[in-house]
Design brief:
By secondary structure, this protein is an alpha+beta fold. About 15% of the residues lie in helices and about 30% in strands. It has one domain: 4-Layer Sandwich (Metallo-beta-lactamase, Chain A).
Length: about 290
């Protein structure tokens, strides 16, 4: 698992599953040559056959005082998406082996409520869905909950079954509905990133003069930093999502901020740099 040090905080990527996709599989475009126009994407984010690897992973933010989990992937035993068979992975064991057993997590942040970000919120035990992280507060953006509680499914590419992934958390009294600028802990805060979904947030980690941002799904692929007008298939509001990506680039380009893409495969982290009138995602390590 990849890890990063941000001041005194540690961030760990915990992969559930990865698989190759054609560019049109993760981006709403018919331009098969889109990735070819940005040579800096290779080799990590553009393959010679026009595909790239889509990663589904969570991010642990360990401040030394708090153990925070950002998003919880797809989860086992779920068949929300017909094209994706129900998974049986060792993700929870991987998290435990890393030193973070479920009981030790004190906060779970749901950047938004699409199926691939809330799956391990709960797990199947004796035929019932129960909270996976029983000692955690689950933070859900208030606007996000208000939207999906009225539009569950709604034909969305990222539709989720709230009855399985979120309702058991409410029943257990573990949910905090929070605002988009919520201060999670010292040095950890939410930042509004609407468009992909109405209430989506990114997660900002700041410590000892260093900063990292976990993107959520404001981007699915680094090419969207250079071409923010290219939407993702599940973007609810394309115009808003485009504006959010542009604002993100304006805010963080040339600042040295570590950007951690929620669906980026290894090396996952990089910095936004302006060169020759173009924005590039420069990987943090090779």
């Amino acid at each position: 698992m990849a890890s990063w040090q941000v001041g005194s905080a540690q961030l760990h990527k915990v992969v559930e599953v990865e698989f190759p996709l054609p560019v049109a599989g993760a981006l709403r475009t018919s331009d098969a040559g889109l990735l070819d126009r940005y040579p800096w994407l290779a080799p990590h984010f553009a393959g010679p056959d026009g595909t790239f690897t889509m990663s589904f992973h969570a991010m642990v933010v360990d401040t030394g005082v708090r153990r925070i989990l950002v998003d919880t992937c797809i989860g086992n035993d779920r068949s929300t998406v017909p094209a994706l068979p129900a998974l049986q992975t060792g993700w929870l064991g991987t998290l435990t082996a890393l030193g973070y057993p479920p009981e030790s997590i004190d906060t779970v942040i749901c950047t938004h409520l699409h199926f691939d970000h809330v799956g391990w919120n709960t797990r199947l035990a004796d035929g019932a869905w129960v909270p996976t992280f029983p000692n955690a507060r689950y933070l859900i953006p208030r606007l996000e909950w208000e939207f999906w509680s009225k539009h569950e499914g709604a034909g969305s590419v990222g539709a989720t079954e709230l009855a399985d992934t979120v309702d058991p958390l409410f029943a257990a009294g573990l949910v905090d509905l929070v605002e988009a600028d919520h201060q999670v802990a010292e040095g950890v805060r939410l930042e509004a990133a609407p468009g992909h979904t109405p209430g989506q947030v990114a997660v900002v980690v700041e410590s000892q003069g260093e900063r990292a941002v976990v993107t959520g799904d404001l981007v699915h692929h680094p090419v969207q930093f250079a071409a923010p007008e290219v939407p993702s298939p599940a973007d609810v509001d394309i115009a808003q999502a485009t504006a959010t990506r542009r604002a993100f680039v304006d805010r963080y380009a040339d600042t040295g901020t570590l950007v951690l893409g929620t669906h980026f495969p290894d090396p996952t982290g990089g910095r936004l740099v302006r060169e020759g009138g173009e924005v590039r995602f420069v990987v943090d390590r090779d």
